[in-house]
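Exercise 7. Predict the joint structure of the components listed below.
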Amino acid sequence: MSADEHLLLVIPPPPGTSEGARLIDADPGQPHLSVLDVAATRGDGVFETISVGAGHPQALEAHLDRFARSARMLDLPTPDRELWRTAVQTLAARLADHEEAWVKTVLTRGIEGHVEPTGWAYGTVSPTFHRERTEGIDVVLLDRGLRSDVATTSPWLLAGAKTLSYAVNRAAAREAQRRGADDVVFVSSDGLLLEGPTSTLVVRAGDTLRTPPDALGILPGTTQVDLFAAAHQWGLRTAVEPLRPADVVDADAAWLVSSVRHAAPIRSVDGVPRAVDAPMTAAMNGFLRARRT
Ligand code: PLP
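Solution:
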């Protein structure tokens, strides 16, 4: 364990009391999770990863909204917003000496057969993403095998919830590596661009930034929302609309954006090189890094 790792356990109230949950400091180098916790045995829970700039959690309220939304989609107890906000802010403050850090919040259904959820928040320093943010990333398009209306037809598939079941996302990333690429853009079985395994797709066509709608069963990205707000300040237009593979291949520029890596420009799609917009990428990452809320 390094000195830059911090952990807070979210302890549920004793059953039958009117007390609230509470936070306790814990040693991240020690085991805390039961082998019977459904986080470990079934991936049954939700999480958020929040970037921290010089001690300030970024897009914290949007992350707390999404944490609650994911919990609702999984029929988990509503997270105590105040408590989780405090947990993130406390860990962020401990990482204030670092320009870039992150905090992960996790809420699981708890130990099989019990009713109390398990929760914790963990924070540490971010790795460097200099190469990804400047040289760019090679992506492959992978069929997710789900239609673009999956969120409506089959809500039990939890498309668009940030669940702990990321094994599929990790498998897709390994497939990208097998194909000599860095990352993935998922495509619906009916041919619409979706998202990366841990990021949102943004493309630029002229003076318009475009991204696919959440209604396609993708995670609503907090980074994309902040970026689109900044884009308006920069005099750009934005559009949330269905995109097809040709839209990323032919775009003037394209990025995968996310909380910790921020904006990674896409420099090739399925081995076909595409232009990187270095000035706009630098502006995006400068803005995303400098956020203090
Ligand atoms: N889509 C998926 C599947 C993700 O896992 C993530 C983040 O981890 C994103 C999109 C980007 O979301 P955010 O910008 O809030 O980090």
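Discussion. Residues 49, 195, 197-200, 219, 221-224, 258-259 surround pyridoxal-5'-phosphate (CB under 6 Å).
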